[in-house]
Write a structure and sequence with these properties.
heterodimer; A: 567 residues; 1% strand; B: 89 residues; mainly alpha
């Protein structure tokens, strides 16, 4: 793929704006609250777009395109029964505690609700996980630019890391959020024409369906397996995901999606920066609207890519293969960019791709520097220092967070589908966490000891389950089975979903048991932290389009509608 | 803090839109074989340009900004909480 002068110009313009925003915001970073929480002053539509954009890293654009090719429209379950219901839930039910408790981070909420050890456990595991995600994102980008444009791997990741470093270092969370909004629009504008051209090449939706039928039958499935999302979920053997409806709904729809969208500080931090309680509650609900349309932007290209590979269109697009004969799924979207975009638009498309990597990385870095500074440094290393000292530490944390991610990028290899690996990591850490939050927020009897031991039990449950099972065709080791193989799942996704279910259940049960055996806190200490002891936020005085509950209902109805259309 | 996010977004898309439109009008038509004969640079450039201009004009009204901690009531409450908890000197 060759770039010309105009493509370079477009890229440079983007970099200038991204850095410019950082420089413009520098003088507004006066206190640590400005740096880590944007002074809690940002309007809901901005935090809403940042809410999804921070998640738009490698796993979204590259991973979802890859999954679209690999599993077809069933990938939309990540959105239409995964993300959307979870976002409605956090906006209506959980945000009042996150925002209302004045916690500055998710681990800090755990400290207020439970105790120090629960916070410490969460803060440290989260910090590790975030840096890892950021490293994976960088790695994917370096590899991609190397294959696509022949750029030097080290040069690409160091340059991207440096740009993110500069704008987060200067403008903190505000800079990250502002850039995420800019990146959001760039990603939408960069990919939308790709879907249009690809779809045209495949003969429209009906042409695409016919081609996908070829893909499905060639792989030994019923002809609709790639173009109908629910119809083949009755048994793991009848759909390419290798999962049945129960594992899908419980594992992905409930545990993994709620675990991610409702407890992951990376996204919750965006809502915490909103300017009022109602803006914070609206943040995920506003985010849900573009989010539910994202499958058309990121999954559809993958489906088009695989469809055209099996039954070629007028322009002769095919997905490249690896030396071992399997498809290079992760290249679906990048290869399409190179195939359909003329120079000029190609510059926009590639810049959008880079923007997605950077927004994902900046999201991780801002979440990391906050948790490090507030929950680890201020709590365990240096308490009672001046606010300026913590502001300085936040900037330092930005630097070493990025240095560690770069190191992690060099270490990351192995998995052929980034999504599967991230799901695995999330299953270990996040799945039990959801049970802790649900119990903590909605059952006042939950105790700190219960939460802590439950979390440990859940994480161990995940590890044990993973250690006893393997996906079909997997080698014992990082894919599981290291305690001996008791069960073989039809796919890595199925294994990851069930690992999450086991982790959640273990944490849920153990937390309840230990809580009942230990002493509960007084009701007075739990005001504003638990559902039954907190006043419901009033909505009556707001115009209808600002009422979180009504917005949530609208969003959910729309998601149900999409499920039915693509059933 | 007076940087409305819509200003830089508007400016950037206006610039990119103009670039694409000019390039789409002047470029050799053979480059559009790839995009199935459609001049995407021109058409999509116009869309991006329009989006950029609208964002810029909205941004000129200037309400979508982050503010300093001491200027927002929610920010002040955080500072107060930190102070009470003895997290700073």
């Amino acid at each position: 793929m060759k770039l010309t002068f105009i493509d370079w110009t477009i890229m440079v313009i983007y970099f200038v704006f991204v850095l410019g925003i950082g420089f413009a915001l520098k003088r507004y970073m006066k206190t640590s609250t400005d740096f880590f929480l944007s002074g809690r002053s940002i309007p809901a539509w901005i935090t809403g777009l940042a809410f999804i954009s921070a998640n738009l890293g490698a796993q979204e654009v590259i991973g979802m395109g890859a999954s679209g090719a690999k599993y077809g429209i069933a990938t939309s379950h990540f959105y239409w029964i995964g993300a959307i219901p979870a976002m409605a839930f956090i906006g209506v039910f959980m945000m009042p505690f996150y925002y209302g408790s004045r916690a500055r981070s998710v681990p800090e909420y755990l400290k207020l609700r439970f105790d120090e050890k629960t916070r410490g456990f969460n803060a440290i595991s989260f910090a590790v996980m975030t840096v890892l995600s950021s490293g994976i994102s960088l790695y994917a980008m370096g590899l991609l630019l190397q294959t696509l444009l022949g750029w030097n791997f080290s040069f690409s990741i160091l340059a991207a890391a440096l740009i993110v470093l500069i704008y987060v270092f200067l403008g903190g969370l505000t800079s990250a959020i502002y850039n995420e909004v800019l990146q959001f629009f760039l990603i939408v504008f960069g990919f939308a024409p790709l879907v249009f051209l690809g779809l045209k090449d495949a003969g429209g939706w009906s042409g695409l369906q016919a081609r996908l039928a070829t893909v499905a039958t060639a792989n030994g499935f019923a002809s609709g397996a790639w173009s109908e999302s629910w119809k083949f979920m009755d048994s793991p053997s009848s759909n390419p995901m290798g999962i049945e409806w129960f594992g899908l709904a419980m594992g992905l729809g409930f545990v993994l999606s709620f675990g991610y969208w409702c407890t992951d500080f990376l996204v919750v931090q965006r809502a915490m920066a909103a300017k009022s309680m109602s803006a914070a509650r609206r943040t995920p609900l506003i985010a849900a609207v573009p989010k539910m349309l994202f499958p058309f932007l990121v999954i559809l290209p993958g489906m088009i890519a695989i469809a055209l590979t099996y039954k070629s269109g007028g322009s002769g697009f095919t997905l490249p293969k690896k030396p071992d004969g399997s498809f290079e799924y992760n290249m679906a979207i990048p290869m399409m960019l190179g195939h359909y975009f003329p120079t000029g638009m190609l510059g926009v498309g590639l810049t959008a791709l880079m923007a997605s990597f950077m927004s994902g990385m900046a999201g991780n870095v801002t979440a990391f520097n906050t948790v490090w500074t507030y929950d680890i440094y201020q709590s365990y290393i240096k308490r009672g220092a001046s606010d300026q000292h913590y502001l300085w530490m936040g900037r330092m944390a930005t630097v070493f967070g990025i240095v560690i991610s770069v190191a992690a990028a060099y270490v990351t290899t192995r998995f052929n589908n980034i999504m599967d690996m991230l799901q695995l990591v999330f299953a270990f850490v996040n799945a039990p966490l959801l049970a802790t939050f649900l119990l903590g927020m909605f059952w006042k009897r939950t105790t700190g000891h219960g939460a802590f031991i439950g979390l440990i039990a859940g994480t161990m449950g995940a590890a044990i389950h993973h250690g006893l099972t393997l996906p079909v065709g997997g080698q014992v080791g990082v894919k599981g089975g290291w305690f001996g193989v008791m069960h073989v799942y039809p796919s890595e996704l199925a294994q990851a979903f069930w690992t999450a279910i086991v982790a959640w259940t273990a944490c849920f049960v153990i937390t309840i048991l230990v809580s009942l055996a230990t002493k509960a806190r007084d009701d007075s200490a739990l005001k504003g932290l638990v559902y039954s002891l907190t006043e419901r936020p009033k909505e009556d005085h707001m115009p209808w389009y600002q009422r979180p509950t009504l917005l949530a209902v609208i969003v959910l109805v729309a998601a149900i509608f999409l499920n039915i259309i693509f059933w | 803090m007076r940087l409305d996010i819509r200003l830089p977004i508007g400016l950037m898309f206006t610039l990119l839109g103009v670039l694409l439109v000019v390039f789409g009008l002047t470029a050799d038509k053979t480059v559009f074989q790839r995009s199935l004969g459609i001049n995407v640079n021109l058409w999509w450039g116009i869309v991006m340009l329009l989006f950029g201009v609208v964002m810029f004009l909205l941004g000129r009204r200037g309400t979508a900004t982050a503010r300093l901690t001491e200027e927002s009531p929610e920010g002040k409450k955080i500072e107060e909480m930190e102070h009470k908890a003895g997290l700073e000197k």
